[in-house]
Write a structure and sequence with these properties.
alpha+beta
Length: 212
């Protein structure tokens, strides 16, 4: 059984999660060229704007149409500025499971946007779309991403040893791969109970650098 995610927008108190738009290309390019994004993701460095446009106009629509996932642009409600991405991928419609990842732009870190956006996507997915499982994988040393997973109620399930490649930039600007472990997290419908209240108790949302 294969389904397709609806082409929708999701609103929170401070954010709007919406489909990527061609007007996002410049900001998306700048966000992807950040060193922390280069370290923790497989995004090529440098990241050209034509690749961002291909993501927006080709990759994201194809993934959604094929039922494999959906990519959300995360924007500020008041300014409409692009502050991040939430991606659902590797979706299995038979068991109602998908994998979530998130990236927050360097100009928007420290505001708790990753947790707010990830929780909004999770609530929509597990409640409205009736999914049964969200999986997250974080590099062993990516403590910021792990804090986001904990804030939204994820449970750590274990470690995939030597399963992850992170990237280190040398003084000459070249990048090299370093192998490390993945920590696997899951979020089930029952785990959502209290997650929003926990975030609210921190003063709205947590203040730490957010990326995945």
């Amino acid at each position: 059984m294969t389904g397709t995610f609806p082409n929708i927008s999701i609103s929170t108190e401070r954010l709007v999660l919406r489909p990527l738009d061609e007007d996002d290309a410049a900001a998306l390019t700048e966000m992807m060229n950040d060193e922390q994004v280069g370290t923790w993701t497989g995004v090529p460095q440098p990241y050209p704007e034509d690749r961002a446009r291909a993501w927006i106009t080709e990759y994201a629509p194809t993934e959604r149409a094929a039922g494999r996932g959906i990519d959300f642009a995360v924007t500020e409600f008041l300014t409409q500025r692009l502050v991040g991405i939430v991606q659902l991928a590797k979706t299995n419609w038979h068991i109602r499971s998908t994998e979530m990842s998130y990236i927050i732009a360097p100009w928007a870190r420290g505001e708790g946007y990753a947790a707010e956006a990830a929780l909004a996507a999770a609530q929509w997915l597990l409640r409205d779309q009736r999914f049964e499982r969200i999986e997250l994988r974080t590099a062993a040393d990516n403590t910021a991403s792990q804090q986001v997973a904990q804030k939204i109620g994820c449970i750590s399930e274990g470690v995939l040893r030597n399963a992850c490649l992170v990237h280190v930039r040398a003084e000459d600007g070249t990048w090299s791969d370093v192998r490390t472990d993945y920590i696997v997290w899951s979020l089930l419908p029952e785990d959502l109970e209290g997650a929003g209240e926990q975030l609210a108790e921190t003063g709205g949302f947590a203040t730490f650098s957010d990326w995945n």
